[in-house]
Amino acid sequence: MKYVKLGNSELNVSRLCLGCMGFGDPTIGQHSWTIDEEHSREIIRRALDLGINFFDTAIGYQLGTSEQYVGKALRDMAKRDDVVVATKFLPRTQEEIAAGINGRQHVMNSIDSSLEHLGMDHVDLYIYHIWDYKTPAQEILQGMNDAVLAGKARYIGIANAYAYQVAKMNALAEKNGWARFISVQNHYNLIMREEEREMVPYCREENIAMTPYSALASGKLSKRPGETSKRQTEDSFMHFKYDATAEQDSRIVERVMELADRYGVEMTQISLAWLLTKVESPIVGATKLHHIEGAAKSIELQLTADDIRYLEEPYVPHNLSGVMAVNKPVMSEDPVWVTASKNK
Q: Catalytic residue at 61?
């Protein structure tokens, strides 16, 4: 395994992060394809054996049971200082808004719940999971800064955000002397490269680490035609993200297969080897041992410049999909510039 410093922080993380959305009680929560605690522990143990020290979960994964499984496994298997644990919080609920709980209080309540699930006194990276359009940015950021000052989080990050939102929040943090985001966790892979327009250059300029999710496009970049899985059968969110562009994406998938055959490796290794040339530590999910074992092999695979160009050449612009497509501001009937022109 290889390691890298995570942006403007002192966190040294493995070049792969084990994404833990697939862990949790499958009888509750959003996903029916997650794996139980016993099988989650097997994968976490194997990840540690392979040198992976970076683990990403969230309070929203299977109603907190992912955090519970991950926390117990890491407490049993590793020294706390040897692992980097990230978790994420959700926007305020309508019930919280009605009860007068502001964003600052919401963040602190959320991290307290996550730490209870994890059985830990702090997380290394606390991530703003989904932008909360009903809560002032200053309240959220101040709550995250409170978590850092209280020793409950060492650093903070953000996910599912536009580049302007990250820049806005970090400028606000700098103005107030608060903690700044050191990482961005967005949707980025070979068949979804819209991050390259603004987020990638912004993060490079500011030394903000990129830890993208859906590194293998929910399996589309790791499976050959005809291969399937429980997740691919039952994950409606995966279909929402990728079905609309399946035809154009298939040309890239074909090239991944071609290079995999040429190098004598799995498609997973080609797809991740490409992504590792772009980002610090992609998040890789695993519900079977061979998933994490195959991912770890990508660290040693070096693609040539010609390989990279060949993989990238068929890409065409994509509409935003996933969280970014459904979680967006409610616009007024007339955009600002139209209203302004009417008032002239």
A: yes
Residue with tokens 């790791």: 222
pLDDT of residue 341: 33
Run of H or E residues at 337: helix 336-342
* 3-state DSSP percent of the chain in helix, strand and coil, to 5: 50, 15, 35
Which amino acid makes up residue 28? I
Q: Give pLDDT, residue 185.
A: 97
d(CA 112, CA 300): 39
> How far is residue 203's CA from residue 210's CA, in Å, rounded to a whole number?
7
Over the chain, what is the mean pLDDT? 91
pTM for this model (two decimals): 0.90
Task: Give the E-state strand segments of 28-110 in sequence order.
Answer: 54-56, 84-89
**Contact in structure between 108 and 139 (CB atoms under 8 Å):** no
Q: Identify the active-site residue in 3, 61, 164, 242.
A: 61
Residue whose token pair is 């509409």: 319
Burial of 101 (0-12, 13-18, 19+ CB in 10 A): middle
pLDDT of residue 235: 58
Could you tell me if 91 and 52 are in contact, meaning their C-beta atoms sit under 8 angstroms apart?
A: no
Rounded CA-CA distance 138/269 in Å is 41
Positions in the chain short of pLDDT 50: 331-344
